[in-house]
Amino acid sequence: MHTLRFPKFALALLMAGAMLQAGAADLLATVKSRGALKVAMEGTYPPFNYKDQKTGELTGYDVDVARLLASRLGVKVEFVSTEWASILAGLASNKYDVIISQVGVTAKREQAFDFSAPYIYSQPQLIVRKDEKNNYTSLADLKGKRLGVGQGSVYELQAKTVPGIEIKSYPAAPDTMSDLATGRIDAAFNDSLMSAYLLKTSKLPIKAGARVGVVERMAIPFQKGNPQFKAALNQALADAAADGSLKAISIKWFGIDVSKAP
């Protein structure tokens, strides 16, 4: 086993860095001064955030929410597209201010980041081929089968808790569905709202399977130690919920209000 040791000068640098972070300006002041909120998202996760095939511009539920919140904060929005597998690491290294890309709230993530109030609720769901004869009603039913999940997603974490499943991780949801349709995997496991959209818009021979697991809370993560930013962001979300703006975006993309807990 390797033991990690820090020489005195390295320890001093770490302590100095911590002191600088403690004395740094609140993110709200930084965003206001810059005049823009830097928002990271996957960009390949319809209908939440993806590129419009005609315009090449980012669109989707998360994109509309990001624009709404930036407007409520009195700034513009700058989008940064990045692969899901590295999106949290990018936030940790200050490459952007927030992530608005269906980030599920977990205890482990809350240890590393602060989160806004949830802005969407959803439940995991299995997706199978239209000619699938097996009736999978739980993850346990997939023991000995190949299951496709999003790389680094909460669905990947949930699937890994069930022994005996052969898990294949994908950087983007469309790739998962393509492999499902061609038989490279036996089922896919993802967000029920995303699944409903893909099933409606895709011509692939796939269909909705059972909903599995608990309802997930999706929120906006950002660096810890920014209480003013957190208060302002949560106030913007609360105001958008109170005046119906958040509900309107939800109805636009899903036909129902997914911004409230079921």
Number of helical elements = 10
Main sheet properties: 5 strands, mixed
CATH class descriptor of the largest domain: Alpha Beta
Domains counted in the coordinates: how many?
2
> What is the mean pLDDT?
89
Task: Describe the protein.
- The chain folds into 2 domains: about 25-120 and about 220-255, Periplasmic binding protein-like II (D-Maltodextrin-Binding Protein, domain 2, 3-Layer(aba) Sandwich), CATH 3.40.190.10; about 125-215, Periplasmic binding protein-like II (D-Maltodextrin-Binding Protein, domain 2), CATH 3.40.190.
- It has helices at about 10-25, 25-35, 60-70, 85-90, 105-110, 155-160, 175-180, 190-200, 225-240, 245-255, and strands spanning about 35-40, 45, 50, 60, 75-80, 100, 105, 115, 120, 125-130, 145-150, 165-170, 185-190, 205-210, 215-220, 220.
- The protein has about 260 residues and is an alpha/beta fold.
- Helix 3 (about 60-70) packs antiparallel against helix 10.
- Residues about 1-20 have low confidence and may be disordered.
- It has 10 helices and 16 strands.
